[in-house]
Design a protein that fits this description.
elongated; single chain; 18% helix; 74 residues; alpha+beta; two-stranded antiparallel ribbon
């Protein structure tokens, strides 16, 4: 039994756990996306949760091919 996480085998987040192999890589930062991680499947690559949190509303709309409209007075 691990002295840090009290699990056998170690919990994946335990510093004694063997290094995990990512299931996929974020197209923005290149970081690993592991089992149970949240991500956005953009079609041309996945974007990790951390990168999605940093995006503005306009950037997120752009992922869907949309944009904000601008009101014009006539």
């Amino acid at each position: 039994m691990c002295m840090i996480c009290n699990s056998v085998p170690c919990h994946p987040r335990c510093p004694n756990a063997p290094e995990q192999t990512p299931l996929m890589r974020c197209r923005e930062c290149g970081g690993g996306i592991y089992a149970d991680d949240k991500y956005f499947d953009a079609g041309d690559g996945c974007i990790c949760w951390e990168c999605m949190e940093e995006k503005s509303t306009e950037e997120i709309l752009g992922l869907f091919g949309e944009s904000l409209s601008v009101a014009a007075a006539y």
